[in-house]
Amino acid sequence: MITTLLQDLERISYPTIGHFLEDGFVDPAIQSLLENVKVAGPAVTVRIADHDAIAMNRALLALRPGDVLVVDMLGDHRHAPVGAVTAAAAIAQGAAAVVVDGMATDVLELRQAALPVFARGTTCLTTKRLRGTGSAVNVPVRCGGVEVNPGDVVLGDDNGLIVLSPEAARGVLDKALASDEAEPDILARLAAGHPLESILAL
To answer: Which of 40, 54, 75, 198 gives 20 to 30 Å between its CA and that of 63?
Structure first.
């Protein structure tokens, strides 16, 4: 069921969802480090405390093909929990993407690996092989101001990120599809010089 939902969501333009919903939109400071990406997958979450790299390793083990790993750094926007090795491990698990509310590193290697990674920026400062007592895998987290629960739908492209419960995603799907299907005709009428008052909602 979730697989069909994800396939249907990939058919729509993600900004179209912004016409119908107000919640679930991740802070636009978190952007893709790659270009021309489009991601739809269920969330696997990890909360990382005290720049604890071990927590990230545990989260990697929880990934299944198609999952999106969402990393809550608890406000730490200095240490990068994802780099070349982390990305390679995520790819080996079949991950669709990694989203980190914080930094990434090894940006050239990440781009070569072609794994979509969303982050606030890049740095040379990384997490360490520690065991933070506040770290946890597959728990509710916050990412870019949005609460993310394990299994939530994560949608990402070059415009940014949206996180929705499967129920919310199903609720907006038909509206978004209908809007996208109507758009080519609107653009064609605009290009043909039709009066704006006959096209735009007023």
So the answer is: 75
